[in-house]
Every structure is written in C-alpha cells, then in structure tokens.
Automatic annotation (TrEMBL):
It comes from Caenorhabditis brenneri (Nematode worm). This is Serpentine Receptor, class U. The keyword Membrane applies. The chain crosses the membrane at residues 35-55, 67-88, 123-144, 156-176, 209-231, 252-276. The keyword Hydrolase does not apply. Keywords: Membrane, Transmembrane, Transmembrane helix.
C-alpha cells in the first residue's frame, strides 16, 4: 500500500519509510538558521508598528502630527506585507528544513492543508513585491499635483490597495486543484531537511516564472517613477531651505532606493533557483541565503526609514514632507 501510494506522488517524501523513520536532531545546521531570523525580525516588527502608529496618530485635525500620512501608510503596508511574507515563508521552508516535521509529513498523504501554507507564502510574497510601489507613486502625485495631492492620493490608495490585494490570485490560480506536498531539500541540505511545495497544479504551471515576471514588472515601474522623482528633487534641491524637510525627503529617497535594490536581489535568487538548484555548484548555496535576502527587505527598509526620518528623532513632528516644498518649487 505504501509503495503504490508513494508512486502517485513522485519526488516527494510521502510514505517513504526512510523519512518516516527520520528523527529530529538539534545538530542539524538548519536549526540555528531557523532560530537566527527571530533575533532581528522581532525588533524590526516593533519598528514597523511604530511607523504605522505615526500614521494612526496623524490627522488633519492634529496639527502636531502634520506628516504626509499617505507616505506612512504606504511604507506600513509595504513592510507589513514583507513581514507576512517572512512569517508564512518561514513555515513553508525554514522550519520544515530543520527536520522537525519530516517524520510526520512522510506519514501523511499530500493534502490541501499543506497547500494553504504554500498559498499564503506565495500570496504574501506577491504582496511584498507590489506594495513598495505605493510610496514612490504617492510622492509622484505630490510633485505633479501640489494643490490637490491629498485628495488624489486618498482616492489612489482606495483604488490601488484592493487591486494589489487581488492581483496575486492571477499568479496563484493554478494552485486550486493542486495538493500540498513535502519535498526533500537537495544539496547542500542534509537528509531530513524538507520544504512544502505542490503537485498536480492546473496546466502544470510553475510559480518561478510568474514570480520572476512579477519582480521585473514592479521593479521597472519603480525605476521609472523614481527616475522622474529624482529629476524633480535634484532640480529643486538648491531651493530647499528647511533642514528637517530635507532630512525627511532624504529618508524617503534612501528608503525607496533600498527597495529597488531588493527587487534586484529577489530576481537574482529566483534565477539561481531556476538554473542551479539541486546541482553541486556553489551557486546552489543561494537556496540557503535566499530567505535572508528577503529578510533584508523587511529589516533594512524599516530601519533606514525609522533611523533617518526626523519624525522619530524628536517629540515634535515636523511638517509633512519636503515634497510639498519641492512641488511648490518645481511646479
């Protein structure tokens, strides 16, 4: 019975006796790799919550919190999406890689519950690619429409946020008939390290190519928008007098550039996975570093914004963003 059942799901560990007999070992090098992320992700999550708290406190009725709240909402949504992606990816890849679930997973049949974990990891990953576009887009609206940007950005957010939440479905629909399975990690992971994947997807579609296309799409849009913004800011830089305004704008610019860097890193990791995973090449080690590269987007972007933005340095919150100053100059 086990042999017949196992043959239905090739390249998985289900009903493979060697995996059923596997015992979890703390000496597995995947164990510290699974513990390490929480050391820096928990403080980063607190920072994200502090950024979001500024958005919640800011209001036209509270002049002491006169910040560009759309910018704070945009970066909050982006970073919450990144943290969610980390959280679900952790249960899809890093925790199973320790071997703690290997025996259990090998003793059960592929099922839709495993697919739910996979779907949530992929869904939030697509969100983490799309939401970063909000901040440069909001800044562009501020520059182009200085007198009506608040009203326009409010409408923009009401339209774009639901669309972004829906768009990952277009890249994960093929999972509907699929089943979640447990697969063994290949080189350089040791025996017993597994991850959650899928089988029997609609039309035999794979996520890798959808993911890669999505990365290049959002990265291209981000580069175009930021190129326009950079031109505008450089043109008006000499006329910006307010020190705090300039620091606020510098913070937002550096944060946006950091996001572009991580689009590139994401693309590189996907390409290595497509062409090198499972080989004995040194490039196959990127499968170990890939989650940490994604973690950098959650941590570095949050901390860069938090450390460089003047709103977090003093009790008094300074006026919105220099984009309002810039827009009045360049328009």
């Amino acid at each position: 019975m086990s042999t017949n059942t196992s043959s239905l799901y090739p390249n998985t560990i289900h009903f493979d006796q060697s995996y059923i007999d596997f015992r979890f070992n703390l000496s597995n090098f995947s164990v510290p790799l699974a513990i390490l992320p929480w050391i820096y992700m928990i403080p980063s999550f607190i920072v994200i919550c502090r950024i979001f708290n500024i958005y919640l406190k800011s209001s036209p009725r509270k002049p002491e919190y006169d910040v560009n709240r759309h910018v704070f909402l945009a970066i909050s949504l982006s970073q919450f999406a990144c943290f969610s992606s980390f959280f679900f990816d952790y249960f899809m890849t890093r925790l199973p890689a320790t071997g703690i679930f290997t025996s259990f997973c090998a003793s059960i049949a592929p099922n839709h519950w495993l697919k739910v974990v996979l779907f949530l990891a992929l869904y939030t990953n697509y969100l983490s690619l799309a939401f970063p576009i909000l901040m440069p887009l909001i800044r562009l609206v501020v520059v182009l429409f200085p007198k009506s940007h608040k009203k326009l950005n409010s409408k923009l957010i009401r339209i774009i946020v639901p669309l972004i939440c829906i768009y990952p479905i277009c890249f994960t629909f093929y999972l509907l008939p699929a089943l979640g399975v447990c697969k063994s990690y290949e080189y350089p992971y040791p025996f017993g390290a597994i991850w959650i994947y899928y089988t029997n997807s609609a039309f035999g579609l794979r996520n890798s190519y959808f993911h890669l296309g999505s990365i290049f799409f959002w990265m291209s849009i981000s580069i175009v928008i930021n190129a326009i913004l950079l031109f505008k800011v450089i043109k008006a830089k000499a006329l910006i007098i307010g020190g705090q305004s300039y620091k606020a704008e510098f913070s937002i610019t550096v944060t946006t550039l950091a996001i572009i860097v991580f689009y590139v890193l994401n693309a590189v990791f996907v390409l290595f996975y497509i062409f090198a995973y499972g080989t004995n090449s040194y490039t196959s080690y990127t499968i170990i570093f890939r989650p940490f590269g994604n973690d950098m987007q959650t941590c570095i972007v949050s901390w860069v914004f938090y450390v460089t933005h003047p709103v977090f340095k003093r009790a008094t919150i300074y006026p919105a963003s220099t984009m309002e100053v810039v827009s009045s100059v360049v328009n």
